[in-house]
Amino acid sequence: MSEKAINFPKVQQIEIDDVHEGQRIDNFLITLLKGCPKSVIYKILRKGEVRVNKGRIKQTYKLQLGDIVRVPPVRVKEESEGISAGLSSVQALEKAIIFEDKSLIVMNKPSGIAVHGGSGVSFGVIEGLRALRPKEKMMELVHRLDRDTSGILLIAKKRSVLVSLHEQLRIKTMNKVYWALVRGQWSEKQKSVQEPLKKITTKSGERLVITDREEGKKSCTLFSVLSNFKDCSLVEARPQTGRTHQIRVHTACQGHPIACDDKYGDREFDKVVKKVGLNRLFLHAKEISFFHPLSETTMRFEAPLQPELEVVLQKLGEQAMIVAGESTDNG
Question: What's the pTM value of the predicted model, to 2 decimals?
Fold first, then answer.
């Protein structure tokens, strides 16, 4: 997509409605001035060119209903062509929606698509959904999934819902369940992993997460075994904290890396699972439950495994039956 520089030559005076109530002024401006470098946005905030109710404010100011925001003229880069809602990858997002109401979208995110664009990714889930719902005033990610992880993803369409769901994440009342295929036989006795996690950047520039009991952040994942196969196990993971790559690192540090994990996995194990057709990370956000602040009900959603993962489990089950049969014959 080519880019062109355009101008907002006039001062904008914007009255804040309930969609943006409670949003930080810097995040509001980032959304309003799409394509504008963050350095420019923070510069006009520091210089006092952005005013709320005619007064200067800090970048952390949270907007109130009825506030009048003065936005100065700015020059920004904008994509000359937006993302087409007709793209097959965008249409796939429409089909992946499990539930939608006036304030929330629940979707079964496909593997291989990032949740947002950037770092060489032209667009992600959030940009695709905005193309599909151009009339929505707001659409923001409630949480994130790794690009190769599939499953339940929440997108808020109202600021009040976003704030409420973020609070539920913070106080740990939102429950998430993941399924992962890991190397070897996971022990029934291994009920939890509580290794502290720390983000690092390697000399080559790659960003990773490692276990570090001195400097790492407190992390906890609960585990249970769903099925055992010949060379691997299907486990259920319930993260109690929300660290980056938490499940992937917690399984790997126990000697049970997730199948086809390009950062923390085992290449020899990956060769084994690729023989039964696995060509992606076997990590799936299977279930989520939370309190819907508008309907005031507890909601629970399940995301079915993608067909390619179902096929892998079926083939592994058939292999295990053959092995069991051979053992019986030899016995």
Answer: 0.77
